[in-house]
UniProtKB/TrEMBL annotation:
<dbReference type="Pfam" id="PF21581">
    <property type="entry name" value="SCD"/>
</dbReference>
<keyword id="KW-0131">Cell cycle</keyword>
<dbReference type="InterPro" id="IPR020839">
    <property type="entry name" value="SCD"/>
</dbReference>
<dbReference type="GO" id="GO:0008278">
    <property type="term" value="C:cohesin complex"/>
</dbReference>
<feature type="coiled-coil region">
    <location>
        <begin position="232"/>
        <end position="285"/>
    </location>
</feature>
<comment type="function">
    <text>Component of cohesin complex, a complex required for the cohesion of sister chromatids after DNA replication. The cohesin complex apparently forms a large proteinaceous ring within which sister chromatids can be trapped. At anaphase, the complex is cleaved and dissociates from chromatin, allowing sister chromatids to segregate.</text>
</comment>
<dbReference type="GO" id="GO:0000785">
    <property type="term" value="C:chromatin"/>
</dbReference>
<keyword id="KW-0158">Chromosome</keyword>
<keyword id="KW-0159">Chromosome partition</keyword>
<dbReference type="Pfam" id="PF08514">
    <property type="entry name" value="STAG"/>
</dbReference>
<keyword id="KW-0132">Cell division</keyword>
<feature type="compositionally biased region" description="Polar residues">
    <location>
        <begin position="11"/>
        <end position="24"/>
    </location>
</feature>
<comment type="similarity">
    <text>Belongs to the SCC3 family.</text>
</comment>
<dbReference type="GO" id="GO:0007062">
    <property type="term" value="P:sister chromatid cohesion"/>
</dbReference>
<dbReference type="InterPro" id="IPR013721">
    <property type="entry name" value="STAG"/>
</dbReference>
<dbReference type="InterPro" id="IPR016024">
    <property type="entry name" value="ARM-type_fold"/>
</dbReference>
<keyword id="KW-0539">Nucleus</keyword>
Length: 1295
């Protein structure tokens, strides 16, 4: 229970209570102006209210009426309280307040009691303040009483509850307070009773430790303060008016002066002044009693309320609040840790800077906190950063001199932000700063053209773009300025004029870099106008355009086509040799409306454009320019438009010329006996580049290029001296030939023999790529690898999907040699260390950029190979060499490898698990080859393997049922690997790979309980008795692995009383003894394992027949037993209570090396812990026990052993349940008594509940947030017998 602290205010405002007020909450000012208020407060206690005789905690009954506040009363109690009316929100707030005021006039104590309970109930409190409590109890006592009425099970209260009703409640709550003050502002608030009581209540509640009280009362107090500020503002206006009237009347001549009117005005001014003083006292009490403490409350929402309201006060009543005494709170809170509070600070300041008059009074504040506001533009909360930029824009409007150049530059670069709201706000700031000021010399300039006003602004934009040194982000800059400067950015006529027209006399011409930047900005503006969505990286989701936006889009596209259809050929002609400009200019036609070429009679301009494109491709060999030419031809060659024939003829002529030239050059280049010179190689390469670029977008099948290019590639393999670029582009061009051929076959437009031809060409080309993949040139190998991955994916079994079964002859699956070559390429080219050579002191950014580019290329190569794994193109186990790099290259490729593991698990869980364990085995073998046979498990290599196994385990998720078979198969493969190789040191030493069991134990937590027993049994197939008895450090992996399989898994067979039991326990408040007949025993549970588990469990790993041992424990023995042993978890043989802290060292081992549960001879057995005679067994030494175990196996059948153990177990359980019911002992030495079967009578239901949990029993006596692992941290008295039993049963023996 949260106790409310002692508060310094009370509802009574008694004379004694006045001395309790601190300086922060004192109503009285130093001049004693509040004497009347204090007197009213003090007088309250002595009054006998007419409604005192009304009983029932705030019930009120108006004299002679059956209705109060417009609500029906029954037996003196209302059907609906103020809280319920406000919560419903059905009644108008005005009428609710009017009803309350009417009730207040009739009986103010009863009405005030209702208002007090309204605030209490709005806080979520279940209790109510009665009339007797109101009269006789102090404030702190009432709040403490109300605190006890809270519902501790829920932390919600009306202001924090979700749902539309509660959102409306918050609004209604605030409206109620505002309307209440507004309706009472002329009389009731000055009666020295109502406001004093409300302020006292809210001040006391705001100081409570209960969040609901503090939050609700702070909101109420702040809204009350805002309402009082409005009242004070009205009083101030009335006082000014009265003063003016008084001055005007007094300045009249004596004959016309009305003395009685002067007296009236003087009296009115005095009353207004008194009211003003009283309102100021109230505001002072609220500010010092609530705001000063709560603006730094621990709850961010409460702090936000305070800052939001003080912003309203300064805006509404600036004469009183807009000064440094109040502004400092906003300035300090701008450093708040919570973004919500910082946002309220910025919003409050925005309200002040909107007014130039108020902004001028903030100079001192701005100079003090300007740096903080500027730094908030980089706030981690995007909303805060956006509003901070908008605030700086308002500051900029109020005064140009406030922000320095450095302050502005810190905002300028945000136009390139990936977060669009921030970029748009920064764009608005930039536009206001650079483009909104017009000098007198700019008046009268033409509207369009080079000499226009926009011409200068466009130049300014270009200069800014170049100075920012982020040339590739032109689209981001245009998008940032689009909302505020779209008219400027759409002035393409001026941009064309700046590019084509000669500069006027005295005008400075644009440089080459400036022209390149202008072309880029022009292209980005065209794209923004035609596509109407942000650039890549800023998209906030697909937005549906409105009808107005669609019309604007069509109009802009028409204007672009009409303008650039004429200008584009001229621009291409002027900048034909400039790569950057031409590349950007050639992208403009894809935004054209091609119908306008015909409707606007612009065919001659189309011909000019086609000629310029031919000129560009003829002069350039740059791949970007050639691809731009190819894309332009592709867009113009649209059969839906009438210009298609004109464009198709020009394109065919161009391609005929290129192919003829290539064939001619190729014959000369491949002539036998002649060494090709560099000029011939350059001609072949340039022509091949152009053909490859055009083949990307156009079908060149009719020219039959496969034979000639394949011949070129084959010659390169034979001679080994083919230039690198020729091979790369030949491979790329052949790849395009295969894909275009496949497209024709797929759509049915091919002839009969085309599929056979395609199959031969594809397989021959794949073989060619494989041969190049084994070459020595890295660039060629990367190209061959990329093309191979694409072709293998395209021609995999996926090609027959979507009803294309006729393509089955084209399916091509890689053989083992090709899979090995692909994997070796990945290992050699992708998983390499970064170059750590950072000796350059000049900060070479090119070096860093090249490293990033190289990493990006390697990521693409790895992703291409991982696609082959996820689509079953290559064997899944080849992914083991990729998965093993997960930790080492986590920063570079972790996301790709993790996604690949996820996809492979969706395809085949078991095979994925096998691949994961294979990757761990590969790393383990690598470690052995490096470090030798003696594995040190503390080395970084082994720890790395173990950490990788832990990461792999986490990828299986929490649903153990879905991954059951996969995890079991993983353990099976791991066990077989651990015992696969014998020890090189001879018999008696651990197997070579035994340490791998330590790695495998990371997956034990993913096993179900029954599967743990199955895996444990399978493990024992590989073990000998000698292995089970070893305790040397070299055998610790086996010990720990067995323990991980037994922990929390063998609850039915391990002793429920043994202190060495690794299981947890529960204690039921209502113990129901479970009958032994409903209990399942270990053998029955083991037989219930899945059939899939039984398949691999039954595989014989050794020629010898395993010996099943039903001995309760496994002891040390000097006898060497070479046959594998199957050992069940130890059965229950003793009910002796032992203190785990006093066990022998041997007793501390659990699982495979558990010592017998019987008390050893040299340890005295306490009286309370002595076992019944029929349960006692004599202690035996190690040799005798081993001999006994073997004899036991030979003399007894398994069924008899099972019955004996079952009876023994049932009797023990019955004894224990009876003892617990009697309350005996409760194992005071143990931290937790163990009672297992009190929860359920069915083992099946218990297992079903626990299958998805890490522990095996339910915690039914602790809070839900406490699990088994937290029990050791609880206070001892949770399990203290004296806390739950009386003295009469504490000394009763358990048995």
């Amino acid at each position: 229970m949260i106790a409310a602290q002692e508060l310094h205010t009370d509802f009574q405002f008694s004379q004694e209570a006045e001395s309790q007020w601190s300086s922060d909450t004192d109503f009285e000012d130093p001049d004693g102006k509040d004497a009347k208020t204090a007197k009213g407060m003090a007088a309250k206690k002595g009054k006998k209210a007419p409604g005192d005789k009304a009983k029932g905690g705030g019930a009120r009954k108006a004299p002679g009426a059956g209705r109060v506040n417009g609500h029906h009363q029954e037996n003196g109690m209302e059907n609906m309280t103020l809280f319920e009316v406000v919560k419903m929100g059905k009644s108008a707030t005005q009428s609710v307040v009017d009803d309350w005021i009417e009730a207040y006039k009739q009986d103010r104590d009863v009405a005030l009691l209702d208002l007090i309970n309204f605030f209490i109930q709005c806080s979520g409190c279940k209790g109510a303040v009665s009339g007797e409590m109101f009269r006789n109890m102090q404030n702190s006592e009432i709040i403490r009483k109300m605190t006890e009425e809270f519902d501790e099970d829920s932390g919600d209260y009306p202001l924090t509850m979700s749902g539309p009703q509660w959102k409306k409640f918050r609004i209604s709550f605030c409206d109620f307070i505002a309307v209440l003050v507004r309706q009472c502002q002329y009389s009731i608030i000055y009666d020295e009773y109502m406001m004093d009581t409300i302020i006292s209540l809210l001040t006391g509640l705001s100081d409570s430790q209960v969040r609901a009280f503090r939050h609700t009362s702070t909101l109420g107090a702040m809204k009350l303060m805002t309402a009082l500020v409005n009242v004070a503002l009205n009083l101030s206006i009335n006082m000014d008016n009265t003063q003016r009237q008084y001055e005007a009347e007094r300045n009249k001549v004596i004959a016309k002066r009305a003395n009685d009117r002067l007296e009236l005005l003087l009296q009115k001014r005095k009353e207004l002044q008194e009211n003003q003083d009283e309102i100021e006292n109230m505001m002072n009490a609220i500010f010092k009693g609530v705001f000063v403490h709560r603006y730094r409350d621990s709850i961010a929402e409460i702090r936000a309320i305070c800052i939001e309201e003080i912003g309203m006060w300064m805006k509404l009543y600036s004469d009183a609040f807009l000064n440094d005494s109040y502004l400092k709170y906003v300035g300090w809170t701008m450093h708040d840790k919570q973004g919500e509070v910082r946002l309220k600070c910025v919003s409050a300041l925005q309200g002040l800077f909107y007014s130039r008059e108020l902004g001028a009074r903030l100079e001192l504040f701005t100079s003090r906190f300007k740096d903080r506001i500027v730094s908030m533009t980089l706030d981690k909360e995007y909303d805060v950063a956006v509003q901070a930029i908008k605030l700086l824009t308002l500051v900029l409007q109020s005064s140009d001199e406030v922000l320095t150049a450095e302050d502005c530059e810190s905002v300028y670069h945000l136009v390139y932000s990936a977060h669009r709201p921030i970029a748009v706000s920064a764009g608005e700031f930039l536009f206001k700063k650079l483009f909104s000021h017009r000098g007198p010399e700019e008046e009268g300039l033409p509207r369009r053209g080079r000499q226009s006003l926009n011409g200068g602004l466009i130049k300014t934009t270009v200069f800014f773009f170049l100075e920012s040194e982020l040339h590739e982000h032109g689209a981001y800059l245009v998008d940032s300025l689009w909302e505020c400067g779209s008219e400027l950015l759409k002035d393409w006529e001026t941009m064309i004029s700046l590019l084509l027209d000669e500069p006027a006399a005295g005008e400075e011409a644009l440089t080459d870099g400036q022209e390149t930047a202008l072309v880029e900005i022009m292209l980005c503006a065209i794209r923004q106008a035609c596509e109407c969505h942000p650039p890549v990286g800023r998209s906030t989701g697909k937005r549906v355009l409105t009808a107005k936006e669609k019309k604007t889009q069509l109009d802009d596209r028409t204007r672009i086509t009409e303008m650039f259809a004429v200008a584009l050929p001229l621009l291409l002609g002027k900048y034909c040799v400039d790569i950057d400009k031409v590349t950007n200019l050639l992208q403009i036609p894809k935004y054209f409306d091609l119908d306008i070429y015909t409707t606007g009679r612009l065919e001659k301009h189309l011909d000019a454009l086609l000629r310029q494109i031919w000129e560009v491709q003829d002069k350039h060999t740059d791949i970007e320019v050639l691809e731009a030419c190819s894309t332009t031809y592709h867009y113009l060659s649209n059969e839906e438009f009438t210009i298609f024939n004109r464009v198709n003829i020009a394109r065919s002529q161009l391609l005929d010329e290129l192919v003829d030239k290539f064939n001619r050059l190729l014959e000369d280049f491949l002539q036998e006996g002649e060494e090709p010179d560099e000029d011939d190689a350059y001609q072949v390469l340039s022509t091949l580049k152009k053909i490859s670029a055009f083949h990307n977008a156009h079908d060149l099948s009719k020219w039959d290029l496969f034979t000639s290019i394949y011949r070129l590639l084959n010659t390169g393999l034979q001679n080994g001296d083919m230039p690198e670029q020729i091979v790369i582009h030949s491979l790329q061009c052949t790849h395009y030939i295969i894909l275009w051929h496949l497209a024709k076959v797929s759509d049915g437009s091919s002839i009969k023999g085309d599929m056979v031809t395609l199959r031969k060409q594809m397989r021959a080309f794949c073989l060619m790529c494989q041969r190049y993949l084994n070459g020595i040139n890295n660039a060629v190998k990367e190209q061959a690898f990329t093309i191979l991955c694409d072709l293998l994916l395209i021609f995999s079994h996926q090609i027959m999907s979507s009803g294309r079964e006729q393509l089955e002859p084209l399916v091509f699956m890689p053989d083992s040699s090709l899979q090995a070559d692909l994997l070796n390429f990945i290992l050699d080219q992708v998983f390499i260390d970064q170059d750590d050579d950072n000796n350059s002191t000049d900060g070479q950014q090119d070096d860093e950029a090249s490293k990033i580019e190289a990493l990006h290329k390697r990521r693409n190569l790895l992703a291409a190979y991982c696609k082959l794994i996820t689509f079953n193109v290559v064997e899944m186990n080849t992914g083991a060499d990729v998965f093993k790099q997960y930790m080492r290259y986590y920063n570079d490729y972790g996301d790709i490898i993790k996604e690949t593991m996820s996809k492979t698990r969706q395809i085949d869980k078991i095979q994925c698990a096998k691949t994961l364990v294979l990757s761990l085995q590969t790393l383990f073998n690598d470690m052995l080859s490096e470090l030798g046979f003696n594995v040190d498990r503390s080395t970084s290599a082994f720890c790395g393997i173990k950490e990788l196994a832990r990461r792999f385990s986490l990828t299986f998720g929490l649903d153990q049922v879905k991954t059951r078979e996969a995890i079991a198969m993983l353990h099976k493969d791991g066990i077989e690997f651990a015992f696969k190789e014998p020890s090189p040191q001879g018999p008696g030493s651990p197997p070579l790979n035994l340490s791998f069991l330590d790695v495998l134990s990371e997956f034990s937590s993913k096993l179900l309980r029954q599967d743990k027993r199955t895996v444990h049994t399978y493990l024992e197939r590989f073990m000998t008795v000698q292995m089970a008895l070893q305790r040397e450090d070299c055998w610790l992996p086996l010990i720990s692995y067995r323990n991980s399989l037994q922990a929390r898994g063998d609850d039915d067979t391990m002793s429920v009383l043994s202190g060495i039991s690794s299981r947890g326990s529960t204690r039921s408040k209502k113990a129901k003894p479970a009958t032994a007949s409903k209990r399942k025993y270990p053998e029955a549970e083991e037989s219930s394992c899945s059939s899939s588990d039984a398949v691999w469990m039954n595989r014989e790993q050794n020629a010898q027949t395993p010996v099943t041992m039903h001995s309760p424990v496994m002891m040390h023995s000097p006898v060497m037993m070479h046959s594998p042993v199957m050992m069940h978890s130890p059965h229950l043989t003793s009910t002796v209570l032992r203190d785990p802290k006093k066990m022998r060292p041997e007793d501390s081992y659990t699982g495979a090396y558990s010592m017998p549960t019987e008390q050893l001879p040299h340890q005295p057995v306490p009286l309370q812990q002595q076992q019944p005679h029929h349960h006692h067994q004599a202690a035996m030494d190690y040799n005798t026990q081993v001999t006994w175990m073997l004899t036991q196996r030979q003399q007894a059948e398994a069924h008899q052993q099972q019955e004996r153990v079952s009876m023994q177990y049932a009797k023990m359980r019955n004894h224990m349940q009876q003892a617990i019911r009697r309350g005996s002992g409760l194992m005071e030495d143990d931290e937790e008594p163990i009672v297992e079967d009190v929860m359920m009578s069915s083992e099946d239901r218990l297992e079903d509940i626990n299958e998805g949990m890490d522990f095996d029993t339910m915690d039914i006596d602790l809070p839900a947030s406490k699990n088994r692992r937290e029990r050791t941290e609880l206070k001892p008295d949770y399990f203290d017998p004296s806390s739950i039993m009386d003295d009469s049963v504490l000394n009763v023996s358990m048995f």
